[in-house]
């Protein structure tokens, strides 16, 4: 048994379901925007808010380059829709630095210990490290590698990244 679909009703209904109004707080600033229901969170942050620190890598949630914190939890922003962030608090890599753009101890440690090379993966690793070190003091090398296992860096052998996390742990007073 087939049912005839009223195509004008489908088209007319499409306008009301393709965009939504959302309110998010990003790096301490409140934003209200209308977004496509299909727009990823990373595209929203980069395109609509012009915060381009988070990078789009694999678009499958594997590389970690798009990691942001959503309500203090690391999230792959390529897998989350912007509309799912409605009412949430986000932090991007731009939000780590202190007043007057002073580097956060995590950022400073990566700089001083050469924990970055091309920089593509760095924002995701910094946010993952930031979250990890809030919960874990004096992590072992193995714990650091496990915590960062969802972040892919193709430039390094990870030794300087691990060293950077250890240095950040020692310098960051939390």
From TrEMBL:
InterPro entries: 2Fe-2S-bd, 2Fe-2S-bd_dom_sf, 2Fe-2S_ferredoxin-like_sf, 2Fe-2S_ferredoxin-type, 2Fe2S_fd_BS, Beta-grasp_dom_sf, Diverse_Oxidoreductases
Pathway given in the UniProt record: Alkaloid degradation; nicotine degradation
Keywords, ordered alphabetically: 2Fe-2S, Iron, Iron-sulfur, Metal-binding, Oxidoreductase
Entry GO MF terms: 2 iron, 2 sulfur cluster binding; metal ion binding; oxidoreductase activity
2Fe-2S ferredoxin-type domain ranges (all copies): 20-96
Protein name, entry field: (2Fe-2S)-binding protein
């Amino acid at each position: 048994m087939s049912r005839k679909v009223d195509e004008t009703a489908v088209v007319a209904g499409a306008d009301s379901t393709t965009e939504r109004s959302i309110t998010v707080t990003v790096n301490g600033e409140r934003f209200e925007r209308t977004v496509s229901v299909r727009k990823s969170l990373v595209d929203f942050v980069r395109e609509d808010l012009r915060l381009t620190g988070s990078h789009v890598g694999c678009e499958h949630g594997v590389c970690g380059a798009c990691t942001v914190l959503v309500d203090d939890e690391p999230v792959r922003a390529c897998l989350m829709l912007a509309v799912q962030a409605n009412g949430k608090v986000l932090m991007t890599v731009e939000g780590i630095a202190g007043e007057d753009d002073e580097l956060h101890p995590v950022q400073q440690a990566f700089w001083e210990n050469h924990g970055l090379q091309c920089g593509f993966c760095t924002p995701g690793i910094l946010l993952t490290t930031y979250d990890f070190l809030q919960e874990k003091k004096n992590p072992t090398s193995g714990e650091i590698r496990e915590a960062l296992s969802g972040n892919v860096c193709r430039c390094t052998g990870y030794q300087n990244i691990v060293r950077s996390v250890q240095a950040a742990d020692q310098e960051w007073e939390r």
